[in-house]
Amino acid sequence: AQKVTQAQTEISVVEKEDVTLDCVYETRDTTYYLFWYKQPPSGELVFLIRRNSFDEQNEISGRYSWNFQKSTSSFNFTITASQVVDSAVYFCALSEGIYGNNRLAFGKGNQVVVIP
Amino acid sequence: ETGVTQSPTHLIKTRGQQVTLRCSSQSGHNTVSWYQQALGQGPQFIFQYYREEENGRGNFPPRFSGLQFPNYSSELNVNALELDDSALYLCASSPATGLAGGLFGDTQYFGPGTRLTVL
Question: How far is the alpha carbon of B88 from chain A, nearest alpha carbon, in Å?
């Protein structure tokens, strides 16, 4: 079963529009971590944010914001006033304690295309 | 840049051959994880090395093997290459601070990847 679901495969927006990427996760652990990574065309995964299961505060970093809701097992990511440089694939990932290691389970990613 | 380096950048092999991919971790990081990313998919966990020992493995056959060296750099070896092994191989390092009493939860910093093509 998919641990992390990112339902929207490709999203196209016009520059300056907002875009929200949905991430739904599944775990039996009470302690876990969630991550978002950005993968530009160059291929390298760039870390954006880490959130632990005990911290449900939303976070804002510049034009990026994250909404974590344990009740719905979701960790959604919004890019405000999108720019062409935001065009990339965005991955949500889950790290669970049951494995005793730091493996990440990734979703399939959201391809974001920002049209100038 | 994360400070994680991988070599080579690209590699072309034929079916049945063997390949070795290399990764240098970020300074101060003692844990290295390897992931396979097929085209259009999310990365899949292959295995992780912590203090030169394998510390967890994903759903990959034994022909995928690895090593970690005393300086925490790592190698991924794949024997008897198959066409489906064509993918981007990503290495990630993390500091293993044990945020939640174990190794999990530390942020992983990824290298640029090695693109492997098997013909």
Answer: 8
